[in-house]
Amino acid sequence: MNFKESIRLSVENIRVNRMRSVLTMLGIIIGISAVITITTIGNSLKSTISTSLNSLGGVNTITAYMTADSPEDDDWENWEYPDQTEEDNLTWEDISGYMDYYEDDVDYVVMTNEYGTATVNTDVGSASVNIQGSAYGYLDSYKLTLLSGRELTKADNDESKSVCLVSDLFVKYAFDGKNPLGQAVELELSNGNIIRVYVVGVYKYDANVFGTANSKVAETEISTNIIIPYNYIQDKAQTEFDYGIDYINIVTKDGVDATQMASLTTEYFDTYKYNDEDANSAFGVETYDMASELSSISKVLDVITIAIAIIASISLIVGGVGVMNIMLVSVVERTREIGIRKAMGARKKNIHFQFLTEATVICLFGGLIGVAIGIVNGLVLSVIGGNVLQNMNPEISTMIVITVRPSVTAILVSLGFSVIVGIVFGLYPAKKAADLSPIEALRYE
Amino acid sequence: MSTAVIDMNGIIKRYYEGQENELEILHGIDLHVEEGEFVSVVGESGSGKSTLMNIIGALDRPSEGTYFLGGEDVGELDDESLSVIRNEKIGFVFQSFYLMPRISAIRNVEVPLLYAGVNEKERRKRAMEQLEMVGMADRANHKPTELSGGQNQRVAIARAMVNNPSIILADEPTGALDSKTGHLVMDIFHRLHDEYKKTIVLITHSQELAKETQRILTLSDGQIVDERRSDEF
What we know:
The complex is a heterodimer of chains A (445) and B (233).
Chain A: H1 3-16, H2 18-56, E1 61-68, H3 92-101, E2 106-121, E3 126-134, H4 138-141, E4 146-149, H5 154-158, E5 163-167, H6 168-174, E6 184-188, E7 194-203, H7 207-210, E8 224-229, H8 230-236, E9 247-252, H9 258-272, E10 283-289, H10 290-333, H11 335-343, H12 348-392, H13 408-434, H14 438-443
Parallel strand pairs in A: 3-8, 5-7
Antiparallel strand pairs in A: 1-9, 1-10, 2-3, 2-9, 4-7, 6-7
Chain B: E1 4-15, E2 23-34, E3 38-43, H1 49-56, E4 64-69, E5 72-73, H2 79-89, E6 90-93, H3 105-115, H4 120-133, H5 149-161, E7 167-171, H6 179-194, E8 199-204, H7 207-210, E9 215-220, E10 223-229
Parallel strand pairs in B: 3-8, 3-9, 6-7, 7-8
Antiparallel strand pairs in B: 1-2, 1-4, 4-5, 9-10
């Protein structure tokens, strides 16, 4: 018998026994919708995490810092921190060499060293600042907006210029909101040196970036960052022992695998710096990259999602038993019809196919309804969950970008699974129908 | 060389074979029906009529004896092949119509073609031709529950005819109808016989109906006890 007619008969039978069919499908609907709800939440969580982290600096950023190598065989008990000399320090020259070496892969390197805090007093007011040294690309990497003037450039750093970037909050309190461009700012460093730097740019203070949103600190008390070319401030802020650059953020070019770039970075510094000739090989550069963090978070989430989905799918088996039950009832009810069909020349396989199709269509219908309910559930719960997350962490709430995304794979797998459930649990009733003797089936009242 | 469509020799049918309650229903039936013949088998209930019909209709196999239907040895076939025989060579008409209540008249008529692997367009065309033949074309899309008994039986006859079978096997076709409608249905059988040259086997308990056929076989207690041509009455 042809496929189309079988499907048509199945759909007609489901329509005639509407209530019964829906009740039968219930197990499948609950099973599939549970699986889809869970996978949708899992997937949404994953994409929320990745979009949120992306908006922070992204998956193409590698953080690298100089540290001592781990002991062999992880023998930490007999390990001592090796003696560090100034030769072992990571310097801007090292970084420049690295950038030249990987100029095709590395977009730019952001370096921020901290030099303590200071209070700036002017004729019109005062404000406190955190002194930071940066090569260039500072505003870009922290996603800050330039309000006026310009960003620090490579030339500023190369030529050790005495310039700086300040925040609009700083301008408000230290300059009474007047145009500060070209004005000098005097700072006393922790080693006693007093430096004069000239304002070349003003950025918009972003409470979210600096983690002060919703804090109770008064605006006047907030210390904002003043950014000065690294080469200049490093020179002025020298102390007896200098530990060099704390850490750098390497931003790779689009299309470069950051995880792979991270291990290349470690290798580069082992080869060209910490090789016992230029510096002690007991030190090295370790890296940390968002991409690999992200992929390990994803893996954990995947495992959890799949585990819960498998548990949820147990209800599919229960649903399948329900389908089998109703199909057996259907075979008995339609004994006469089976007899007529057999008298008209239906072969066993025709009858078998018809009942199998019907069981499968019921399960597929249930699966489709389950998928629809599951998607709606998953999306609603993801949004609610995202909002709860934002409310629990108000200071970073704007960094949590809620993205909801049903899992296409899960939908396809679920539908496939409901078809399989239909086939498996339809087999026995279908065989029972096919094996009926035509005479007895015809005589059945 | 005979032109017998049905060629049965020494048919014996036993139930519960080899068991204590073994029951022999048919005790050696010889039945020969020529092509284009209109034959009736008459018998009281319990005479073995239904069992004989099941064997003629390839719904059941004889325990002993040979049965050739259109030259093919039906006694030896498996279930699958019997299905094909029923589909291609036999058109059933039953007392209580046996139409499927949920599908329309035309789709009921199409059922044998469905199992013969005929495509949808062709099915529709051939089913419609048969419905026209029995005068039910205007009710093609009605369901059996919306039709009278006589109309249902006409649809059933259209279904029996649709795959152009070798024989039409009618089991008490007027049994569920009043006498006027019954006559109308019998008229259709006569037309199938006269115009379409169909071989028809009518199984009935009614002597009246049997007299309308060419040859009457009387079955009693599992044996054919009398055989005469209708003009001998």
